[in-house]
Design brief:
The protein has 455 residues and is α+β, with helices and mostly antiparallel strands. The chain contains 14 helices and 16 strands. It folds into 4 domains: 75 residues, 2-Layer Sandwich (Uridine Diphospho-n-acetylenolpyruvylglucosamine Reductase, domain 2); 119 residues, 2-Layer Sandwich (Uridine Diphospho-n-acetylenolpyruvylglucosamine Reductase, domain 3); 110 residues, Alpha-Beta Plaits (2-Layer Sandwich), CATH 3.30.70; 88 residues, Alpha-Beta Plaits. A hairpin with a 4-residue loop joins strand 7 and strand 8. It binds (2R)-2-hydroxypentanedioic acid and zinc ion.
Length: 455
């Protein structure tokens, strides 16, 4: 393996195989053959050509923060880590774009944009380790989607190496480009199954004015959407997030923050607005009073400083970390916003009835219809039995998702985790077209095989 490609850093030690062979998904075992660290697009191309000749599968790997096992190597694959391709290459102030290598960390890009007077708005808790290439490959969403959209909206150009070893320069940062199929869009969200992204040009925008966060408590699920409507009708919301008392219990117990109200409520919503004028803050408080009078909100707090904004966000953003020791079985689904309460009420009732021993952490980006459901492993239950029981919940949940015309993965992707349920969201015709596209870009099936679907 050491001589795979001249000058290409290759590691085969146990520690590297274990670390780079996986992402944040639990319940899988990494088994890669080697890890390689290319430094240029040409090295990636040479590697793909080598892999074709040697019939070796490659798994593209970014910051490994994924939650659907799309970056797992479970079958003797060579993992292609982009972490050595981590340079920001160009800021173009007239185009309002930043061009960077795929291995740049999200937070580094955000900071670079900010320090230069701009804003890169795709944001999520894993910002400190996720990489731009991975964000593109998974069409990352996160906490600001209701205002700024998904990663797709910000990708102006891509450099990729296809599974056949061609280097493509897609869209060349043009705003308008009416010349046939936009192949760039195919790579966004393809979970590394069509080729390897090596360079990305991202749009940036003006910096938002001072954000203000309101954290509101309610005991009634239907009120969550009423609160949303009330604020959305008066503001261009930056974020609208939800979490439950169970989520808060873990966050506070792990020392990530303090309970916001003297009397706990069942549900908490976090509303973020951009304060452009003082009147807007008054308006936000007026809405709060109206909602309280109607009994929709039971308690609430509003940030008075940037530090308080951060502290309130911590209650939401640290849920994943605060529950990780309970080996959570994760789901990440979406329905239309109007169907969120229906889904939540029905599904939580079913889980309560069929698995009374399960503690479930519900949270998510309800402003865009995206819910994260984390079932925590009961202490006495073995991991295998736990996963088996959770798979029963999956079947019920995905039937419901199909009936409600939702998606089995809102933002985390299909990877290995949701493969068996792809047909709950996509038609057979769609899936077979996706497979044909895969074959065109990856004729020898060496690029992340077995992810999203099996051929
Ligand atoms: C979030 O919104 C992430 O915090 C992680 O998408 C969700 O841990 C999860 O299930
Ligand atoms: Zn999320």
């Amino acid at each position: 393996m050491a001589t795979m490609i001249e000058g290409l850093e290759t590691r085969t030690d146990e520690e590297s195989l274990k670390t780079y062979g996986k992402d944040w998904t639990k319940h899988f075992t990494p088994k890669p053959k080697a890890i390689v660290f290319p430094k240029t697009t040409e090295q990636v191309r040479d590697l793909v050509l080598w892999a074709r000749k040697n019939k070796t599968a490659l798994v593209p790997s970014g910051g490994r923060t994924g939650l659907s096992a799309a970056a797992y190597a479970t079958n003797g694959e060579v993992v292609v880590s982009l972490e050595k391709m981590n340079k920001i290459l160009e800021l173009n102030t007239l185009d309002q774009t930043i061009r960077c290598e795929a291995g740049v960390i999200t937070e580094q890009l955000q900071k670079y944009a900010w320090d230069n007077g701009y804003y890169y708005p795709i944001d999520f808790a894993a910002r400190g380790s996720s990489q731009i290439g991975g964000n593109v490959a998974t069409n990352a969403g996160g906490i600001k989607v209701i205002r700024y959209g998904l990663t797709r909206q910000w990708v102006m150009g891509l450099k990729v190496v296809t599974g056949s070893g061609e280097i493509l320069n897609l869209n060349k940062s043009l705003v308008k480009n009416a010349t046939g199929y936009d192949l760039r869009q195919l790579f966004i969200g393809s979970e590394g199954t069509l080729g390897i992204i090596t360079e990305v040009t991202l749009a940036v925008t003006r910096q938002p004015k001072e954000p203000v966060v309101l954290l509101l408590g309610t005991d009634d699920l239907n009120s969550i959407m009423e609160i949303y409507t009330a604020y959305r009708n008066s503001f261009n919301l930056l974020a609208y997030e939800m979490f439950t008392d169970v989520a808060l219990k873990y966050v506070t117990a792990q020392g990530h923050g303090t309970a916001p109200f003297a009397t706990p409520t069942k549900y908490y919503v976090l509303v973020e607005i951009e304060k452009e004028t003082e009147e807007q803050l008054e308006k936000a408080l007026e809405i709060f009073s109206e909602l309280s009078e109607k009994g929709r909100v039971l308690d609430g707090t509003v940030s008075q400083s940037p530090k308080q904004v951060t502290d309130l966000w911590k209650l939401r953003e640290n849920i994943t970390e605060a529950t990780s020791h309970k080996q959570p079985y994760k789901n990440d689904v979406s329905v239309r916003v109007s169907r969120v309460p229906e889904f939540l009420i029905e599904m939580s009732d079913i889980i309560k009835k069929e698995h009374p021993d399960f503690e479930v952490v519900w949270f998510g980006h309800v402003g865009d219809g995206n819910l994260h459901i984390n079932i925590l492993k009961p202490d006495g239950l073995s991991s295998d039995d736990f996963v088996k029981k959770c798979k029963q919940v999956d079947r019920v949940m995905f039937n419901m998702i199909e009936r409600l015309e939702g998606s089995v993965s809102a933002e985390h992707g299909v990877g290995l985790v949701k493969k068996a349920f792809l047909s709950s969201t996509r038609s057979e015709a769609e899936i077979s077209l996706m497979k044909e596209i895969k074959k065109v870009f990856d004729p020898d099936q060496i690029i992340n095989p077995g992810k999203i679907f099996d051929l």
